Amino acid sequence: MKNDTPISDVVVAGHICLDMIPDMGSDQVSTSLEEILTPGKLVSVGPAKTATGGAVANTGLALHRLGLPSRWWG
Fold first, then answer.
1. Which residues pair with 10 in a beta bridge?
2. Number of structural domains the chain divides into
3. N or C: which end of the chain has fewer CB within 10 A?
4. In whole angstroms, what is the distance from residue 71 CA to residue 14 CA?
5. Mapping DSSP to helix (H, G, I), strand (E, B) and coil, where does residue 15 land?
6. DSSP letter (8 states) at residue 66
């Protein structure tokens, strides 16, 4: 039986997550961090961007950029 699965030199296993990064907008730039993080304060944010995160995704992407075939297991 022929296996068409490509061989990987590295397997990265562990936690994979999805990072959600809110758009704080230009009106928040002049505001200090202490003012933004005041307990009970409502802060308007724009749409969130998503990106892969966690040790598996970060390491796997770095290996891919270095040209090493890798598989991720989460």
1. 70
2. 1
3. N
4. 12
5. coil
6. T
pLDDT of 28-60, one tens digit each? Answer: 566 777 877 888 888 778 889 999 888 899 999
Q: Are 62 and 52 in contact (CB under 8 A)?
A: no
Determine the average pLDDT of the residues in 9-31.
Answer: 80
**Does the residue 52 lie in any domain?**
yes
Note whether residue 9 is domain-resident.
no
Q: Which residues contact 71 (CB under 8 A, 6 or more apart)?
A: 8, 10, 11, 12, 60
Residue 42 lies in a domain: yes
| Residue 7 reports pLDDT greater than 70 | no
Please give the Cα distance from 73 to 70 (Å, whole number): 10
